[in-house]
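I'll show one example:
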Amino acid sequence: RRVLFRSKGVIKMTMKFYSGNDYDVAQFAQKLYNARMKLGLGINEFAKFIGSSYTTYYQNEKGKVTKISVELVDRLCEKFNTSADFWIKPLNTNCLSSQIRDRKSVV
């Protein structure tokens, strides 16, 4: 999610992420690939379908990211009628799925 705030009269925007140190980026990448293949779409078409840029989607699908955008996960949940638990898996087995839903583990 984008968060807007003012600093010295300028509106700045920040984004929230799931840290790659806490969540399985490789599994997220595989789930993206599987969803795209199931729909039979190319990378560009799937990126547009989920409201992402080609580059952002490609980097996520190839596992070349160190953190996962909360906004991207939210859009995937909307498009596929799933929860965040489906898309991202905690690396720490003590991390409860409710923490994912409540965004307590968002950095």
Notes: The first helix runs from residue 25 to 39. Residues 1-7, 95-107 have pLDDT under 50 and may be disordered. The first strand starts at residue 2 and ends at 7. The chain is about 50% helix and 15% strand.
